[in-house]
Amino acid sequence: MAVLVTINSIIGRSPYNVYICQSNGSNCFYISTIYSAPYQFDIPAPYDNLDSYMLKLVDANNCIISGTTTL
Question: What percent of the chain has pLDDT over 90?
């Protein structure tokens, strides 16, 4: 089942590389490079079947912005 992620706002310096990871931060999968929010994407398989996941963004200064959520 598709899981839609919405990034409503971002702090830091663009561009941002967007990754989806397992909730412990391992096995990250590159999604896209974005320049601003809002941005939406579907979590790809097999991560779309997890109960929780981590969203990780890396900005132009290599600062990591991350958060974990449980479905």
Answer: 80
Task: Summarize pLDDT for 16-26 with one digit per residue, the tens.
Answer: 999 999 999 99
How many Å apart are CA 18 and CA 27, to the nearest integer?
13
Give this prediction's pTM: 0.92
Q: Which of 60, 27, 63 is CA-nearest to residue 43?
A: 27
List of domains in the chain: 4-70 (2.60.40)
For 18, half-sphere exposure in the C-beta direction (CA atoms, 13 angstrom radius) is 18
d(CA 51, CA 22): 10
